[in-house]
Amino acid sequence: MTTVDLPLLPLGRGVDLNSERGVECPGDLPAASDPDLVARALAAKAALGDKVFVLGHHYQRDEVIQFADVTGDSFKLARDAAARPDAEFIVFCGVHFMAESADILTGSQQQVILPDLAAGCSMADMARLTQVEMAWEAMTAAGVADSVVPVTYMNSSADIKAFCGRNGGVVCTSSNAEVALEWAFEQKPDAKVLFLPDQHLGRNTAVLKMGLTLDDCVVWDPHRPNGGLTEEELRDATMILWKGHCSVHGRFSEEVVDELRATIPDIQILVHPECKHEVVLKADLVGSTEFIISTIEAAPAGSSWAIGTELNLVKRLAAAHPDKRITFLDKTVCYCSTMNRIDLPHFVWAMESLVAGQVVNRIEVDPETEKHALVALERMLALPGKTHKD
Ligand code: 13P
Ligand code: SF4
Q1: In CATH, which of 3.90.1720.10, 3.10.20.10, 3.90.79.10, 3.40.50.10800 is domain 124-247?
Q2: pTM of the entire structure?
Q3: In sequence order, what are the residues at sequence separation of 6 or more whose Cβ sits closer than 8 angstroms to the Cβ of residue 241?
Q4: CATH number, span 249-328
Q5: pLDDT tens, 218-251?
Q6: Is the Cβ atom of 156 under 6 angstroms away from ligand 2?
């Protein structure tokens, strides 16, 4: 079959819009109905030539991803951005934390552009620096901070990455969380990990890859006094999971897994590690977006799959593999609404502005934050290559 199996429902608002960054474009955003948008994007890209390098995350819309020079998951895009020192402009079709990471990893002569500044990430917003610093103070008071190694998921703001850099920690992505945790546990005798901000990636990696148990994990709730934990619980824990999650991946449920297994014989369930632990336990395979793509590419014709990740990617995989049956692992249509904010009008506006000599929506991390965040990002890039993409 050629189309992804989906119910006919209106577009879901998968995540909150990030109003704090919701800077509107000036009035010259092209109309979405403009029939020349594709031609305008092509012309702007041709005019800019090698000066521009366009990065596209796998969750981007088709109308935008067609213009990407490279596509990838967050890990691959961070590496690709770092590998293009000659491009004057990096246009990042993804979300804010990815553009920040690209700015940190690229040279000071390069400028990173996010076509819509409201393309944030609700998960990244769940860990604020002041909250993390308060948690660290509480861990210090409990006498455990000296043995804690902070590990932050790429899906976090630059100042959280800088916190990890300053405190002996590292960044990880869904491609290399296992290697990053191995590294973290080797840093100190009896090390504990503070895992930010996605409790699900932290728990799934700790329990399914590192041999820890659910009892080794506690959840730090930044909205409760002392994270909702006693000092004894903090001292006994090996993994301190920040109470954050992805609103898109949080939708996938055990019930739908059971229903699909009952209705489609031999279906294989393939999910992203941002899904809840109960869902991951019921899945056949778990991995980053790059892993999901390579798994489907390698799958035999006629095989059946239900995929638990963002819908733009699942629809693209279904279209690219008409010989395989590909089903979305949720009953409702659910895109990441902030990823979807990068649409063709914003892309054309950003590119044509560059042609006209105007840099719009530049993402620039302040030098002090950048210095420490770079330490944590470089520690990640130096990890041994046991990732899904290598
Ligand atoms: P990866 O790109 O690491 O697979 O992460 C998925 C995601 O949610 C990005 O926001
Ligand atoms: Fe953030 Fe989830 Fe959207 Fe990724 S899919 S950008 S983690 S809200």
Answers
A1: 3.40.50.10800
A2: 0.91
A3: 195, 199, 202, 203, 217, 218, 219, 220
A4: 3.40.50.10800
A5: 999 999 999 999 999 999 999 999 999 999 999 9
A6: no
